[in-house]
Amino acid sequence: MPDAMAQPLLDVRGLKKYFTVGRRGTLKAVNGVSFSIRSGETFGLVGESGCGKTTAGRVIVRLYEPTEGAVYYRGKDISRLARREAAEYTHNVQMIFQDPYASLDPRMTVEAIIAEGMRPRGMYSRGESRDKARELLSRVGLSPEHAQRFPHEFSGGQRQRVGVARALAVNPELIVCDEPVSALDVSIQAQIINLLRKLQRELGLTYLFIAHDLSLVKYVSDRVGVMYMGSLVEVASAEDLYRSPLHPYTRALLSAIPVPNPIEERGRRRVLLEGDVPPPLNTPDQCLFLGRCPHATDRCQQGMPQLAQAREGHWVACAMNEELNVDAYTI
Ligand SMILES: Nc1ncnc2c1ncn2[C@@H]1O[C@H](COP(=O)(O)OP(=O)(O)OP(=O)(O)O)[C@@H](O)[C@H]1O
Ligand SMILES: [Mg+2]
Fold first, then answer.
1. Alpha-carbon distance 248 to 161, whole Å?
2. pLDDT on residue 4
3. What is the predicted pLDDT for the residue at 2?
4. Cβ atoms of residues 181 and 193 within 8 Å
5. How far, CA to CA in Å, does 250 sit from each of 46, 81, 197, 229, 238?
6. Which of 73, 75, 103, 264 has a 20 to 30 Å separation from 273 between CA atoms?
7. How many CB atoms lie within 10 A of CB 144?
8. d(CA 78, CA 81)
9. Quick one: DSSP state of residue 297?
10. Does residue 20 have its Cβ closer than 6 Å to ligand 1?
């Protein structure tokens, strides 16, 4: 997607990641996704379970090779980096995972977990990395005195703080936050979100924030991309997306979020999403939302719609694009 502003920090272009699933065929987990993230912004990626968010995140941190398309970081294709540049990239781009229980080694102290990432850089002596680990613990709101404790001695929220400290240990620029609070109690979620926001301000971090909860993404993101079965169906500023969503899928997702005002809430119409989302196996060349869309016409069977700019900075992939009129079907 062309970007009118300065060169983006991360530029994902036509990204595809397919998996071969037994003899059954090709699972198109990510199927032609393009978006860019500017330095210092938070880009939210939302969609139902299985739509390809984590897979996209894993390609971005180079855990997977793309099937097609490319990811550019500061203008360079991350699949074609020289060895030193690739090592640099793995420091610059970190990932925080959904499950703070599974992602921390239970046999290591939190100090060792945090210091581990620092080692390949060879920048710190043992004493220095210990000091830095303790400094990071207090930066993420934990007591440096707990440095010798093991992950099981911490609560879920505290473990996620350790995960954040570990990601910060290599001074990253971009962090892929893959549903960082979905495994946590609602009461703890806001604390972790506030921590991430504070760190962003203090350290100038850029985030790719993955979630399936649109209300959460609205709160943290500057811009949002909505994914459906491997494709982006809408990209816009958070404000624009929530005020005037264009894609019928986004409208349905938004209508499922209750609003705090009970009078307004009573008058709202829910757009129900009917049917399950099948895994994107051997998918036909047509709009994949077709079967669940209340506005589908014959045109929706004629190829997969591509993202097109409907308004300044607001992109939508829908064959009914021209007819999509904000006032025509308010939710
Ligand atoms: N290594 C793999 N091999 C085969 N299929 C995979 C693999 N990883 C993911 N998939 C499939 O790709 C699709 C997208 O999965 P992905 O984990 O990216 O979705 P997601 O949007 O992160 O979902 P969730 O919200 O549940 O985390 C799913 O159908 C999933 O089963
Ligand atoms: Mg996921």
1. 37
2. 47
3. 44
4. yes
5. 10, 36, 25, 13, 12
6. 264
7. 14
8. 6
9. -
10. no
* 8 A C-beta contact, residue 52 and residue 227: yes
Mutating to test ligand 1, I would choose from 15, 19, 31 the residue with most ligand atoms within 8 A of its C-beta, which is 19
Backbone angles phi, psi at 175, to 5 degrees: -120, 125
Helix (H), strand (E) at residue 255: helix 248-255
Which residue in 307, 283, 287 sits closest to 297, CA to CA? Answer: 287
60 lines ligand 1 (CB under 6 A): no
- Joined together, the tokens standing for residue 133 give 């680990």
**Which of 289, 272, 270 lies closest to 331, judged by CA?**
270
Region class of 14: left (phi > 0), else alpha (psi between -120 and 50), else beta = left
Residue located nearest, by CA, to atom 16 of ligand 1: 52
pLDDT at site 134: 95
How far apart are the CA of 156 and the centre of ligand 2, in A? 18
Residues of the chain with pLDDT under 50: 1-4, 325-331
What pLDDT shows up at residue 274?
61
Q: What is the pLDDT of residue 284?
A: 82
DSSP letter for 291, please: G
Residue 267's contacts (CB-CB under 8 Å, 6 or more residues apart) are none
* Residue 145 structure tokens: 């005195």
Half-sphere exposure of 268 (CA within 13 A, CB side): 18
Q: May I ask the CATH class of domain 10-283+294-323?
A: alpha beta
Using CB atoms within 10 Å of the CB of residue 148, give its burial: 0 to 12 exposed, 13 to 18 middle, 19+ buried: exposed
pLDDT, tens digit, 9 for 90 and up, residues 87-120: 999 999 999 998 877 888 999 999 999 998 775 5
* pLDDT tens-place string over residues 198-211: 999 999 999 999 99
- Paired tokens of 256: 């499922």
Q: Is the pTM of the predicted complex or chain greater than 0.85?
A: yes
